[in-house]
C-alpha cells in the first residue's frame, strides 16, 4: 500500500496480511473467552491492537484516495473516543462489546478487506457500500455505548 497501491501483487499481499491479522485477533479472543483466560493486559492491549489494525487500513486507504477522509476521521474519532471512555469507566463497570459492536467490527473488517483487494468496478463499489454500512453501525453503536454509560449515573 505504501508504494501507491498500484501493484496488484502487493495489494494481494496487503489483503492477505490484513485478513490473517484480523482472523488471528478473532481467534485469540475466542480462545481466551472459551478457556476463561481473559487477562487485565489483554483487556487493555486487545482493543488498542484492534484500533491500530483498523486505523492503519483506514488511513492507508484514504491516503490512496480509495476511501474518503471524512469516513476515516468519523470512524477513528468514534473508535478512539469509545476506547478512552471504556478505560475511564473500567474501574466502575466493564463496558462489554454489544452485538452491534461485533457487527461493526465485522463490517469494518470486510469493507476494509474488499477495498484493500485490487478490485475494480462493481466489486470495488461493494467494498465502499460495506464501508458505508460499517460507518452507520459505527456511529449508532458509539451513541449507544455513550447512552449506556450515561444511564449508569454518577460514580458513587
Strand coverage percent:
under 5%
DSSP summary: helix tally: 5
Give the beta-strand count.
0
Could you say which overall geometry the principal axes of the C-alpha atoms support? globular
| Radius of gyration, CA atoms, in whole angstroms | 17 Å
Question: Ends: how far apart?
Answer: 49 Å
Helical residue percent?
A: over 70%
> What structural class results from the helix and strand content?
mainly alpha
**Low-confidence stretches at least 5 residues in length (pLDDT < 50)?**
none
Q: N-to-C SSE series?
A: HHHHH
Mean pLDDT: 89
How would you characterize the largest beta sheet?
none
Q: How would you describe this structure to a colleague?
A:
With 156 residues, this protein is mainly α. Helices cover 78% and strands 0% of the residues. It has helices spanning 8-34, 40-63, 69-89, 99-116, 121-151. The model has no long low-confidence stretch (mean pLDDT 89).
Outline:
The protein is mostly helical. The protein is built from five helices and no strands.
Task: For the structure shown, list the relevant keywords.
156 residues; mainly alpha; 5 helices; 78% helix
Secondary structure: elements and pairs:
Elements: H1 8-34, H2 40-63, H3 69-89, H4 99-116, H5 121-151
Amino acid at each position: 500500500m505504501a508504494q501507491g497501491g498500484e501493484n496488484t501483487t502487493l495489494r494481494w499481499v496487503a489483503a492477505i496480511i490484513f485478513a490473517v491479522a484480523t482472523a488471528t485477533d478473532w481467534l485469540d479472543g475466542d480462545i481466551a473467552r472459551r478457556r476463561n483466560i481473559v487477562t487485565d493486559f489483554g483487556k487493555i492491549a486487545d482493543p488498542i491492537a484492534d484500533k491500530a489494525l483498523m486505523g492503519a487500513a483506514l488511513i492507508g486507504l484514504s491516503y490512496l484516495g480509495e476511501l474518503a477522509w471524512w469516513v476515516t476521521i468519523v470512524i477513528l474519532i468514534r473508535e478512539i473516543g469509545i476506547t478512552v471512555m471504556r478505560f475511564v469507566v473500567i474501574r466502575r463497570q466493564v463496558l462489554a462489546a454489544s452485538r452491534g459492536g461485533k457487527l461493526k467490527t465485522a463490517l469494518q473488517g470486510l469493507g476494509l478487506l474488499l477495498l484493500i483487494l485490487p478490485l475494480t468496478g462493481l466489486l470495488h463499489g461493494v467494498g465502499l457500500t460495506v464501508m458505508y454500512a460499517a460507518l452507520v453501525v459505527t456511529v449508532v453503536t458509539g451513541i449507544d455505548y455513550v447512552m449506556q454509560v450515561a444511564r449508569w449515573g454518577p460514580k458513587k
